[in-house]
Amino acid sequence: MDNLRNEFFHRLLIDSGIRKDMRVLDVGCGTGDLSIMASELVGDTGEVIGFDISQDALAVAKKTVVEKCLSSVKFIQADIAELPHNFGVFDIIIGRRILMYQINTAQSIGSLLPFLSRNGKMVFQESDCMAASFNSTMLPLHTKVQNLIWDTVAKEGGNIYIGMQLYSEMKNAGLKISLLRAEAILHTYESGSDLGWVAKMMASRMIKQNVVIAEELDVETLEYRLQEERKKSNTPFIRDMAFGICAENRK
Ligand SMILES: C[S@@+](CC[C@H](N)C(=O)[O-])C[C@H]1O[C@@H](n2cnc3c(N)ncnc32)[C@H](O)[C@@H]1O
Fold first, then answer.
1. For the chain, how big is the Rg over CA atoms in Å?
2. Which CATH number fits the domain 2-248, given the four candidates 3.30.70.990, 3.40.50.150, 3.40.50.1240, 3.40.50.720?
């Protein structure tokens, strides 16, 4: 499942031209998947800084880095809106599912720009709710859980249409788009799916936003019920419409 979760961004990063020795900033790094991916690509002579507002997520990220003995990556608690001036500049600024949670996308991109080197690149992957409308009637539980996730993000103030807006947001920030792609991420019975895991992680947020009650979601049995539905339906599930962009600072 890790491969399925990270494969799109890995390809995006390689195609965007990440190389050894580069300095990379991971925006809203969460538990550090992308920072670790980037640190493997820039090597010991490169540097990766991941930042996030959540101490809990950073604690997991820091533990993983120690376990993997990665010396070129470090994690810092920070908010996009108030980044430390001494960060320096980066060859690549990366992020996944982070702009979708910002109230003002343009402002967030604007606050990252001072940290992007000349000819530096912003490489982002964001999700868009459009995939939820493509799903089959053969997968009612999957469709329901997918919709609960998007309803929660929308109620929290997230931008559930960010995928299609990335192009104009980056252009409006004065960047030159060098790569733009969107891909449906399909999950099957054989591949497994992170849908149940994500729903479990988001359960308290779903309940707080009144999109579902705990008994109806029943997270303890959800993973099994989803798996059974994939097995019985013999149908792939469109888990996500992943949007990827690489935008360059030509100034
Ligand atoms: C969906 S998670 C994605 C985590 C990571 N990028 C990944 O793909 O695995 C979104 C992350 O953004 C962080 N976040 C949200 N708003 C933020 C902000 N204003 N500044 C820094 N981090 C933020 C959250 O704490 C959370 O860890």
1. 18
2. 3.40.50.150
